[in-house]
């Protein structure tokens, strides 16, 4: 029989409650233990050791591990994945001639499968400038097809980037962060740790200090972007990385940077580097 | 014809006789409810798929009447018992009179 004095029991209960209430960091309800296998054959790395440059986190997790079983299951079979409708649409765009040069994507690149692996290294530096997948697509459109640039988060661009990123699904993220990329990466890192907006929050306050905790009704993830472009149940469409950054910044009542701005591109590089080693999941499904 | 409509179905290639299989169907369609207005305030006319039928060797498996509240890209998952080898026929009926059809054969082993 437990003869522990009542006072002591109560004191430890209080201490426990206090620990729950004030626990900072991911100790409370982190990622679940589920394993992501797509179409019963493609194993996705959703958990791995954090890259060396990352001090605040030991293990990195895909956002998939923080979602409910129902949402998770949508990504486990391509037929159930609502994003694949958009990927199919992009396949049609791939073959569609546009612009003054009379070319489609397929005219030069033939099979989109040729872009296998591209997503893992983006954003990257080309001729002193940081370029994202969106930039590459629009460069082709304006300079080689004689077509108009697509809007950053428009339906066509988000579908096309999802299709191209999809070719790398299952491969590990591996962006370059030194050499030419270093200054961009440093800028991205600075943005990640800078508190902004009326709520005075930095990315790190939620996604590094408190992932696994609830922010009201939402289960905070590490904010990894290995699944982008991502289908979100809340708006039933493909969401781009910069669109998501914008959403986060609005939520903390900051004035968001523009999609495609140098700030967001640098942040995209830095956030991608926080997920080095996680598999590309594009197109992922989140809520 | 409504644009961007593409039916997709997933049926196992084979089953044992009498087995209950799971069928999934998805059709990309805007499913415009008729309740929305455009930026000028004009009602956007209703344009939905109003009926979905699946049949097996001529026998109806499921017959669904669909209403405007059904979301974009309607997805159906249901079960069917397969007594013999044959062919599933899936048919979607659009408000504008179009009919979209997909077929899948299944072998019995």
Structure commentary:
Chain A is built from 10 helices and 11 strands. Chain A has 287 residues and is α+β, with helices and mostly antiparallel strands. In chain A, a hairpin with a 2-residue loop joins strand 7 and strand 8 (218-219). The longest helix of chain A is centred in the N-terminal third of the chain and has 17 residues, at 6-22. The termini of chain A are far apart. With 109 residues, chain B is mostly beta strands. Chain B is 0% helix and 54% strand. Chain B has a 5-stranded mixed sheet with strand order 2-8-7-4-5, with no helix packed on it. A 3-stranded antiparallel sheet of chain B has the order 1-3-6, with no helix packed on it. Classes of the chains: A alpha+beta (287), B mainly beta (109). The A-B interface holds A 79-80, 82, 85, 88-89, 236 and B 4, 6, 8, 10, 24, 26, 28, 71-73, 75.
Oligomeric category: heterodimer
Strand order of the largest sheet of chain A: 10-9-11
Helix content of chain B: under 10%
Most extensive chain-chain interface: A-B, 7 and 11 residues
> In angstroms, what separates the terminal alpha carbons of chain A?
48 Å
- Could you report the average pLDDT of chain B, rounded to the nearest whole number? 91
Contiguous helical run count of chain A:
10
End-to-end CA span of chain B = 40 Å
**Radius of gyration from the alpha-carbon trace of chain B, in angstroms:** 16 Å
Query: What is the general shape of chain B?
Result: elongated
Discrete helix count of chain B:
0
Give the H and E element order of chain B: EEEEEEEE
Main sheet overview of chain A: 3 strands, mixed
Biggest sheet of chain B: strands, sense, closure?
A: 5 strands, mixed
Shape of chain A: globular
Beta content of chain A comes to 5-15%
User: Order of strands in the sheet with the most strands of chain B?
Assistant: 2-8-7-4-5
Q: Which structural class fits the helix and strand makeup of chain A?
A: alpha+beta
The parts of chain B where pLDDT drops under 50 for at least 5 residues are none
Structural class of chain B: mainly beta
Radius of gyration of chain A: 21 Å
